[in-house]
Amino acid sequence: MARKLKAGFFSFTGDEGCMIVLLELISDRFDELSQKMEIAYWHVLRSKKWRDINDFDVAIIEGAVSTNGEVERLKDIRSRAKKVVAVGSCATTGAPSNHRNFFDERRLGEIDSVIRRFGYREKVQPLKDFVKVDDEVPGCPVMEEPFLQVMQKYFKEFGVG
Ligand code: SF4
Known about the structure:
Blueprint: E1 5-11, H1 17-28, H2 30-36, E2 37-42, E3 56-62, E4 65-67, H3 68-80, E5 81-87, H4 89-93, H5 105-117, E6 120-125, E7 135-137, H6 144-157
Helix pairs in contact: 1-2
The structure holds iron/sulfur cluster (SF4).
Iron/sulfur cluster is lined by residues 14-15, 17-18, 62-63, 88-90, 96-97, 140-141.
């Protein structure tokens, strides 16, 4: 059987809008992409736990980092993937999920109890502040063509198709 790119799709802090776009994109091009890509993990599609998988070719990650638990999960995913791609502006820059980073003292005071109750970090940050990111795809939501270009690069690099 031909080699496929083993991919995992992960969501951090955001509204999952990027994953909806990617789900639609892959579904529109299913005949072509299913020949080249194995979706080993995507929480909306697969029940298998990602921690059972140690050899992702690529981890595709949306959302920013807002809790210490997310920092640990991100590092864990990084250790299981040859490549990490940050998709969408939350993952690449933190925005718009980092809106509260720019609150003044008064507004910060208003959300202080929520921040402490749920153990949020002081700032919401992009993925690259914590792990090596191999590629970034901009957009809110993520732009389809640049995403496909990154995948094409990996298909070539990993000898797929
Ligand atoms: S970049 Fe935009 S669409 Fe993507 S998760 Fe963040 S807010 Fe949602």
